[in-house]
Amino acid sequence: MHKIFLICKREYLSRVKKRSFLLMTLLSPLLIALFYGMIFYFTINKSITEERKTILVCDESTRFENKLENSKLLLFKYKTLKQTDFEKTLNESAIDGILWIHSGTANIKYDLLSKEQPGIGLTNIIENKIEKIIKNEALAAKGISENTLDEINNLKVNISTQVKAKVGYEKANSEASSILGFLGAFLIYFFIFLYGVQVMKGVIEEKTNRIVEVIISSVKPFQLMMGKIIGIAFVGVTQFAIWIALILLFSGSVTSIIQSKMQINAAAIQGIQESTQVNQNVSIDFLQEFESFNIPLLLIYFLFYFIGGYLFYGALFAAVGSAVDSETDTQQFMMPITLPLIFSIVFAQHIINDPNSNLAVWLSMIPFTSPIIMMVRLPFGIPLEQIFLSMLCLVIGFMGTVWFAGKIYRIGILTYGKKPTYKEIFKWLFRKN
Question: Domains of the chain by range and CATH?
Answer without folding.
Answer: 50-144 (3.40.190.10), 176-264+286-428 (no CATH)
